[in-house]
Amino acid sequence: MKRFTAAELEAARDRLVPDVVADGLRVLFCGINPGLMTAATGHHFARPGNRFWPVLHLSGFTPRLMKPSEQGQLPAYGLGITNVVARATARADELTAEEYAEGGRLLTAKVERLRPRWLAVVGVTAYRAAFHDRKASIGPQERRVGDTRVWVLPNPSGLNAHWTAATMAQEFGRLREAALDRS
């Protein structure tokens, strides 16, 4: 992967990164918002320390470890990626409560249109802010968006030291099993 200078990363601030979506996905993964590396590359979860791609593979969602640049192949596996907030920032704490609320509204409309089987929000704090649910925890939620079930996953950022790749893969794997169940 290309190494970006600090100036190149800063130039990516506020840039939008296109969703990787299709109608009727098994799981639509939803990040908090694009980081500067993601915005600079145009590839979701592109920061080298982010564990999304390894955990996606370890949990059995993909048959091999994919690179962020291969994100366009996800719909073939019934998977997609979007974000709660579209604006790229260096850190999620740069986002406002209003951005999270508006992001939750826009995400709801997107999910109603695309109708994935599951919406998987990666990051319980982002889920709580976007959907005004202070008591939410990791795992399946009571909330539905239309017919779409909702699951909250741990944030795969390398900064999330509470979860290892192995424990994250277990939780992602629980979602994978639920997404395969047709009942």
UniProtKB/TrEMBL annotation:
Example GO molecular function: hydrolase activity, acting on glycosyl bonds
Gene3D superfamilies named in the record: Uracil-DNA glycosylase-like domain
Pfam families: UDG
EC number: 3.2.2.28
Keywords: DNA damage, DNA repair, Glycosidase, Hydrolase
UniProt entry tagged with the keyword Lyase: no
Domain Uracil-DNA glycosylase-like as annotated: residue spans: 18-179
SUPFAM superfamilies with a match to the protein in the record: Uracil-DNA glycosylase-like
Protein name: G/U mismatch-specific DNA glycosylase
Organism of provenance: Streptomyces bluensis
